[in-house]
Specification:
It comes from Flavobacterium flabelliforme. GO terms for molecular function: transaminase activity. This is DegT/DnrJ/EryC1/StrS family aminotransferase. The chain is built from 9 helices and 10 strands. The chain is an alpha/beta fold. The protein folds into 2 domains: about 15-165, Type I PLP-dependent aspartate aminotransferase-like (Major domain) (Aspartate Aminotransferase, domain 2), CATH 3.40.640; about 185-300, Aspartate Aminotransferase, domain 1. The strands form 2 sheets. It has a 7-stranded mixed β-sheet, with helices on both faces. A 3-stranded antiparallel β-sheet has the order 8-9-10. Strand 4 (about 95-100), helix 4 and strand 5 (about 125) form a beta-alpha-beta unit. Helix 1 packs parallel to helix 2 (about 55-65) and helix 6 (about 185-205) runs parallel beside helix 9 (about 285-300). It is globular, with a radius of gyration of 20 Å. The termini are far apart.
């Protein structure tokens, strides 16, 4: 029998719990894991930043939990070393594995990796702090782990707010009212303009020597948070300051690694962190802004 309209009120729902921040959401997930595996280990990607103002969003929660932790390998373009991940889990599959979707992008082997984790019954969580429109609008991540979490202010013009999302709620779903913002933003339009700005900027950066775009292709379903590049043959910090002095809001995310990654054997921590800089491509940026930004970039690099 087919009813005239959908009747199942719980079908295709996900449980949303609003938190003060993505960090708080991640802390709550760790506590859930700890209650079941108090002697367990959290397996983290080997690219975790720290700042004097904010500390480390990912790692502070791990330290505060008192749980053991290890790092799995990431390459220069933040690609997961799948063999290294498997080697860690070959010893103990009870680890909590964190997958981080840096800057709104997913790993090129995302489906292969997550399918393997599911097959091996490994508990994993998706950090969608930068990627919640890649999840909500693009449908490209966030649904395969037991939990995912978002950071609202990373993509919208709001001051704070996070979301903890359970993909396998054990109780009746009650989605709370949102204390941080009314979700009347046109998320699809934001998704589209960010993608347009990203592709347009990439087209201009192809002609700039010394700039290596980390994600050269913007696949369907991906909503970028920023446009990360590797700066070659020029001091990244100098470029950051000069561009910001000219009014172009560059950021240098993950420029300083947590001390636990000092002397790391992995490229992401020991090389990328020294060279990465991020261009703004958010919904307020216009084509004229991008043209002016690239022109200034060329002036600085060619000076």
């Amino acid at each position: 029998m087919i009813t005239k309209k959908a009747q199942d009120t719980d079908k295709y729902k996900r449980q949303w719990i609003y938190t003060e921040s993505a960090r708080n959401a991640w802390s709550s997930i760790i506590e859930k894991y700890k209650s079941v595996n108090p002697e367990g280990t959290i397996l983290l990607p080997s690219y975790i930043g720290w700042s004097s103002n904010e500390g480390s969003g990912i790692f502070d929660s791990v330290l505060n939990s008192g749980m053991k932790f290890e790092f799995y390998g990431l390459g220069l373009h933040l690609e997961i070393d799948f063999n290294d991940l498997k080697n860690h889990l070959s010893k103990d599959k009870s680890h909590l594995v964190l997958l981080v979707h840096y800057f709104g992008f997913i790993d090129s082997k995302y489906n292969e990796i997550t399918n393997w984790l599911i097959e091996k019954n490994v508990f994993f969580v998706e950090d969608c702090a930068h990627a919640w429109l890649t999840d909500l609008v693009g449908g490209s991540c966030g649904r395969k782990g037991s939990f995912s979490f978002y950071s609202l202010h990373k993509l919208l013009s709001v001051a704070t707010g996070g979301v903890l999302v359970s993909n396998n709620p054990e109780q009746d779903i009650v989605n709370e009212s949102n204390p941080f913002l009314e979700l009347n933003y046109d998320l699809f339009s934001i998704y589209k303009i960010r993608r347009f700005n990203y592709n347009y900027l990439v087209s201009l950066l192809k002609d700039v020597n010394g700039i290596d775009v980390i994600y050269k292709e913007l696949n369907e379903g991906i909503c970028p948070q920023t446009l990360p590049v590797i700066v070659e043959n020029f001091d990244r910090t100098t470029l950051y300051h000069k561009m910001n002095e000219k009014g172009f809001g560059m950021v240098s995310l993950y420029h300083t690694m947590i001390t636990e990654l000092d002397n790391s054997p992995y490229e992401a921590a020991n090389s990328l962190a020294k060279k990465i800089i991020n261009f703004p491509i958010h919904q307020d940026v216009t084509v004229a802004d991008i043209d002016a930004m690239v022109l200034e970039l060329k002036k600085i690099l060619n000076a």
